[in-house]
Model the fold of this input.
Amino acid sequence: MKKLNHFSEISELYDTFIIDLWGVIHDGNKLNKGAMEVVQNLSDKKKRVVFLSNAPRPNKDVVNFLRELNMEERYLENVLTSGEVAMRSLNDYKFGIKFYHIGPDRDRSLFNGLEKNKSNLENCDFILCTGLFDEQYEDLKSYENLLKTSLTKKLVCTNPDLIVHRGNQEEYCAGTIAEIFKSLGGEVIYFGKPYREVYDVILKKGEKNLIVGDNLNTDIKGANNLKLDSLFITSGVHRSEFNEENEIKKLLNTYKVNTKFFQKQLMWWNDYI
Done:
């Protein structure tokens, strides 16, 4: 494992760079200036840059959000979300027809055209989880009470992340609800990192890939599962779990993953620390 002082050190080693969005490119409120310089330099070098997100919404929704953060149009061509991949299975009725939705209203675009199949929990074929209900944002016990009577149904989780940071505020994701369902004995079907299906849409034969992300459970584990090199961004979701750089190896061992490189923030140079 090597600490990167400059991302430029490794820019010529790979053909494709699969980069996480939340926690690397932006924090939910603004773009990371240093990370965008990396994207610009890679694009100028004609490298393939793919933004891979566990957002539980279609690609177009995330593209529009990145526009709101003032990302340049030329970088928005290669965005893939876990929601986009899940949507294909939903439209093929892979898990049944009627579903019960757990998640905020902003995720409704995931099942555009399928609204008529939305059902109550008792009569649904499966549970579709995109996040937490807005009005119950931190009341996890209520989800346990809700789900414990429906363990014969499958839960489809469109965002395996447990938490994200919006600025300095920690927020739960759909993966937290999925973990509750599993702990009760239920079966979960995941879409997104670290599961292979989402990578199969991106990977091209003969290319050398680097996965860049801040989440050991999803980004780095996904790289390990595929035997791909990875860069762990330490200032993201795990930032409160260690204090010194010499503790990073212990953190990796705790999550049973390894990484080839680590960097505090994604930066071409060190100008933004």
